[in-house]
From TrEMBL, chains A, B, C, D:
The keyword DNA-binding applies. This is TetR/AcrR family transcriptional regulator. Residues 1-22 are annotated as: Disordered. InterPro entries: Homeodomain-like_sf, HTH-type_TetR-like_transc_reg, HTH_TetR, Tet_transcr_reg_TetR-rel_C_sf, TetR_C. Residues 47-66 bind DNA. It comes from Streptomyces yunnanensis.
Length: 209, 209, 209, 209
DNA sequence: AATTAAACGAGACGGTACGTCTTGTCTTGGG
DNA sequence: CCCAAGACAAGACGTACCGTCTCGTTTAATT
């Protein structure tokens, strides 16, 4: 799975095997070219020939390491995203406020045009390609969802939430309406929307007295 | 908008203009071919050439009326879906039971392989094509969402739900986690899942006494 | 033959049946459109659709009466050429001078760009279409050759030429090098060329004393 | 010019540059397919798609190296014709007999149906395409004409012909009536015809005593 | 250092599908 | 009831990319 999307381990990855040699320079050039092109022409008109040309790289160098343009993009995107992500959600003790703060920031991020193209592209590609979507979800989405689950768990342990609540579904009640609106354009992504959403979801999760 | 996807109105459509002439026979043949092919080979390998050949139709007859294979499929899908849809959700007085019943049926429908291909295809295409996604949402999704909003409204008027609840967001809390799991394969679609989902959502919407 | 190129006789052509409605107006409009277009876009890009549009005529009206764009052009060209042609070559008593005068004029005519396009077009089309080339030769070329044959016959009867000379081949010795140079661009068409040609040909035809 | 029709020199052609690589196999297959097809279906219905399919070659491989089907055919024909051609006309001392012998053989050749199709095709295509006709004439016709000019020159130097004769025009007087009859079907191509033609032409070129 | 084997850039190859264009036939509706 | 307008089935056009396959040429890691 990860194998398909992120092929044959980067140099760092030890292993007894005599270490496949490859050009880190080409790798970077390909990522840059792919991200630049997907922003310029969109995913549909993104071609491997185009990426190769832009990166100053032979087509075979791409085909050698990635099975599809989607896989290239996923790696490119992933390597750009690996940086942040690892901190966990804030916990000031006020769950609603914390969720609203994070989701408001995410609204702004998702409304950024430059950010949208490759992300949408990957979702679209994954929709029809199960293997790709599993890589995408596992690599880029699941970690995000888990942050929310953890924050909810903390709140539950603090006695704020009903002990019977299903945390995973709770997180999805928060995140799915959000990403659905963005993905399918079923509604606007605004701060007001996330505020209402958080309130309405938390009403259902909170402990009754 | 609808104009692009569902071109130039069928003959019936009144209008002072002298009514664009076209062959209803070809139209039907194209829809059947498109739906059959998308099921057989998937969306990526669905080609306009293939549809034309299967339908026994010149390529130009497709290009004349639709801008893309996605638009053909949207129309095909829409014309197939126009049939049912118009009944409204059941209202037995037991909101939770009604929602669970409908969503369980929908789970089964969404787990049907034959059904998935064209639907996924359209979502994927729409992800990168705003105009298409607006047609898709307006024609196929919005009506569905509205059925849920209406059922919730009935419940609110019956005093079951809190008068302050945002019905639209309530409906999204029910439907988005569902379609998100299906679309991105972030989780399984089971009857148990929808049961828990309905319960947890309704806890947040119900009137407190 | 003539049937194919000049179909179904114009209205004038007697016949008990008065029926056959046929629009002389359309016929003229088609000829004008065809000649204008072949001059503007050349023969290869001349299309029947284009002629119909320019003439303000339905395509079917052209297909009904002519089998190909070449046939249309042949008729158009023929009907334009029928006018002149019928006078016979000058006969001042000086054969060489007469031939040079006529051929020099023809040089000028053949070097006229506007004139070339449809004529070349017909020759080219005829090259691969025997029936068409027979119509073309019979209607447009043979009459011209015969004028030369007649002029040579007059000279032979006047005792200028050897009585054994083959007049037809004599005319071809004059005309073919000329048209060959024009058609295949094997050499320049100049007044000097025709002068030398006439002299060299006549040396062979003249009576020896 | 030749460059356009015969692209990028065969591998042998020295040059410091690393020699454009291309498949001699494909080249030959294309020539064979083109010549076979033009004989079977004629030039108008000869298509590049058809050639590619018959040759087992991608369309692009043809488009990469030749600009049109006419250019393919010219190369194909040229490469087939390059073989013979290089011997010079016979010189038995009897000019008339030599010319008659060669022209009678050529009559037979030109009356051969298999031979006609591609040759006619090229002439027709060249008629409307100046560049092509220059290639065609330069590569296939001019060498032939020059053989006749040289034979006439030998005769002139042997004192058989008038020293003032224009050899080029003399050759055209022989060859053009011949090719004109063939090309435009203005008359039959028979041995009798060429005999008379040779006699009548030579009468005009021979030295007078 | 010299050797050697892979990965590299370049790009030709056999193909598929694109979207456009023309052809000749068929259909519709106004005059 | 003719005929312009134009939709239709068919299929060639030339283009863009696909994914595979040589070509020489780096480029390291092992000798």
């Amino acid at each position: 799975m990860a194998n398909k999307a992120a092929p044959d381990a980067p140099p760092g990855s030890a292993g007894g095997t005599p270490t496949r040699r490859y050009s880190e320079r080409s790798r970077q050039a390909i990522f840059e070219a792919a991200l630049a092109l997907v922003g310029e022409v969109g995913y549909e008109k993104l071609t491997i020939e185009g990426i190769a040309a832009r990166a100053g790289v032979g087509k075979q160098t791409i085909y050698r390491w990635w099975p599809s343009k989607a896989a290239v993009l996923l790696d490119a995107f992933g390597s750009a995203a690996d940086a942040y992500e690892h901190e966990g959600l804030p916990d000031t003790g006020d769950l609603a406020a914390d969720l609203k703060a994070v989701l408001r920031a995410t609204v702004d991020e998702f409304n950024d045009a430059a950010w949208q193209a490759p992300y949408r592209a990957l979702v679209a590609a994954g929709t029809n390609d199960e293997e790709l979507s599993r890589s995408f979800v596992g690599r880029l989405m699941e970690p995000g969802i888990r942050l929310y689950v953890e924050r909810l768990r903390a709140a539950r342990e603090a006695g704020e939430l009903d002990p019977d609540v299903d945390l995973r579904i709770g997180a999805e009640m928060l995140l799915s309406p959000f990403s659905q609106r963005w993905l399918m354009r079923t509604g606007e992504l605004t701060h007001a929307f996330v505020d209402t959403l958080v309130d309405q979801v938390l009403r259902g999760l909170r402990r009754r007295d």
